[in-house]
Amino acid sequence: MSNPVILQIDASARKSGSVTRELTGAIATQLLTSSPTAKVLIRDVSQNLPFLDEEWVGANFTDPSERTTEQRLKLALSDTLVAELKAADTIVIGVPIYNFSIPAALKAWVDLIARAKETFKYTESGPVGLLEGKKAYLAVASGGTKVGSEIDFAINYLKHMLGFVGVTDVTVIAADQLMMDPANQDAALAQTRELAA
Known about the structure:
Layout: E1 5-10, H1 19-34, E2 39-44, H2 54-60, H3 69-74, H4 76-87, E3 90-96, H5 104-113, E4 120-123, E5 126-129, E6 135-141, H6 155-164, E7 169-175, H7 183-193
Parallel strand pairs: 1-2, 1-3, 3-6, 6-7
Antiparallel strand pairs: 4-5
């Protein structure tokens, strides 16, 4: 049996001083204590992920056997991101809340991995996710938005999208409202230390 894979996704625009990057790293470290042979794959989506355009959509909806070289190249990054998700046993996503929702870079990642016949399929009874059996952690940080409140448009969206592709076992670790209570960061880090247990 191959070693388990932890996919760590960082989305904060900040490279240093980022609470979500600290949390994703802490979660991955704790997961390694209970599974020391696991491989951690880090994907930083904070820069250079393309937004969907007409050529990408056209390539995506072309039958794979009929795609041109240009279309295959257009989908290459998406194919890589999808392959990372398929290989992962555990997914750790850093979720900084920007203006009540997720960063545009993280939304770009969602758009690139939500692909019919790859991560979900349509059936007579509706869409079915194809990435079942995986565990996900959302490491959330916000300045003023309370996670789970009526102005939090980030977490329910991500939980829905993960469920849409088949990942329904999702744990949220929140360092929220840090501008009001900086101690929430310590509480979130303490929660990550309980993961191994």
